[in-house]
Amino acid sequence: MRATNPIEPVCPESALPTSNTNIKANVYDLGLKQDESGRLRRIRDLEHENALLMRMVLETQIEIARLRELLTSN
């Protein structure tokens, strides 16, 4: 069975912003916030990865020193 009445909008037009620039500004600001959040998350991830790599370098240097000592003792 078909509806004969037109579908009513969920949000009345009076509740919508009157200016198109306001709509674009809100969407643009949301995009900036998401970009900034992603950028900060990426920086945090890179700092963590850098700390892990520095730890591996230090452990490798310690291991090399230990192996050199073993070789010279024989």
Could you give the count of β-strands? 0
Low-confidence residue ranges: none
Alpha-carbon Rg, integer: 30 Å
* Ends distance: 95 Å
Major sheet attributes: none
Shape: rod-shaped
Give a verbal description of the structure.
- With 74 residues, the protein is mainly alpha-helical.
- The protein has a domain of 51 residues.
- The protein is built from one helix and no strands.
- It is rod-shaped, with a radius of gyration of 30 Å.
- The N and C termini lie far apart (95 Å).
- 0% of the residues are buried.
- The model has no long low-confidence stretch (mean pLDDT 77).
Give the structure's gist in a few sentences.
The chain is mainly alpha-helical and 74 residues long. It has one helix at residues 20-73.
Break the fold down into its secondary structure elements and pairings.
Layout: H1 20-73
Label this structure with key terms.
rod-shaped, mainly alpha, 74 residues
